[in-house]
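Dataset card, provenance and construction

Sequences and ligand SMILES were collected as paired inputs. For each pair, a complete structure of the chain with the small molecule in place was predicted and serialized as structure tokens. The example below shows a pair involving fe (ii) ion. Curators did not alter the output after generation; any descriptive sentences attached to a record were derived from the structure itself.
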Amino acid sequence: MSDENHKFDVIRPYGSLTKTDEKQKFTDELKAWQTGAERQALKDAYWDAFQKQRDGVTMYEIRQGIIQLFTDLDAKNKDGLTFFDQPASTKFHGNSLGGLARHCLEVYKRFDMINKEEKLGIPEDSVIIISLLHDLCKWNLYHPKVTVKGFLDERSPFQLKSDCPLGHGEMSISKIQDYIRLADIEKLLIRWHMAPYDYEWKTYQNKVREISKAVEWFFIADYSASLSEGSDDE
Ligand SMILES: [Fe+2]
């Protein structure tokens, strides 16, 4: 199904609508999305990945906090949005309902393939954790943007509001570790997943490369996934 089908209809003319109509339209679109098949598919794909086994043991048995994390990802925030409803950016890639989870699943697909082809040796459960959770910093970060007149902004329907700006990769690590312990290689790949776009990359790149070439491959998986969604914006 095309990504276009799930974007807010941001270019539609709002002029003839009253403020109440518009808010109702947003509520209706959200309700349709939340009860629709694609949202369910995104959620199922996360759950399926979290149930994968390593040496006969499912991931949620090894990383017990995953069940609570999954439950919380599926809980509505004060905007009525769950993780599986939220966008991946304000106006660029994944700027749509479900954009964040859709992006992470695309990164998983790409990084899983690269890991095997390039023989990076990253364990499958780590590939899943890293890929599906590397952008957890964006969970509850974007909120519907309502203009001073009370209308949903047509060009940029979401705005960023952070109560605790720790940094991109750092925030993801912090949020994940509220639930599960991460291995060092997982922290490394999540922390540096923006590699050359991270202002500290120049300082750390040699040390990071010494430890694992997987960092830059993960950056490529993430970056190429975002390009396929329409922009390189994070
Ligand atoms: Fe990403």
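Derived descriptions for this record:
Residues 103, 107, 134-135, 222 surround fe (ii) ion (CB under 6 Å).
DSSP finds ten helices and four strands in the chain.
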